[in-house]
Amino acid sequence: METLSYSQIKNKIGDSWALIYNPIYSEKTGKLIKGDLSYWNTNRDKVENMVLEDTNPKKHFTILFFGKIPNEKLLLNFF
């Protein structure tokens, strides 16, 4: 895993879902500042499966979409 800033992650993975361990958020805005990029894929289910396969359940992680969200769809996050 490599620690990258939000913009570095976005440039690296494009329009994909990302599994990020040890995320650090801005206290002011609540947005992701940086984290350890572990895995990314355009299929969200594959990213979620990586979390399920992890044998260490105490890791702090987030799953984010770095693409453009279409106006005609609504994304709900149940984590």
Describe what this molecule looks like in 3D:
Helices cover 23% and strands 35% of the residues. It has 79 residues and is an alpha+beta fold. A hairpin with a 6-residue loop joins strand 2 and strand 3 (32-41). The two termini are 22 Å apart.
- Radius of gyration in whole Å, from Cα? 13 Å
* Shape, principal axes of CA atoms: globular
Oligomeric composition of the shown chains: single chain
Which regions contain 5 or more consecutive residues with pLDDT less than 50? none
| Helix percent band | 10-25%
The SS-based structural class is: alpha+beta
Biggest sheet: strand arrangement? 1-3-2-4
End-to-end distance: 22 Å
Q: What topology does this entry show?
A:
Blueprint: E1 2-5, H1 6-13, E2 17-25, E3 32-41, H2 44-53, E4 61-65
Antiparallel strand pairs: 1-3, 2-3, 2-4
Task: List the defining traits of the structure above.
79 residues, alpha+beta, 4-stranded antiparallel beta sheet, 35% strand, globular
Q: How is this structure best summarized?
A:
The protein has 2 helices and 4 strands; from the N terminus they run βαββαβ.
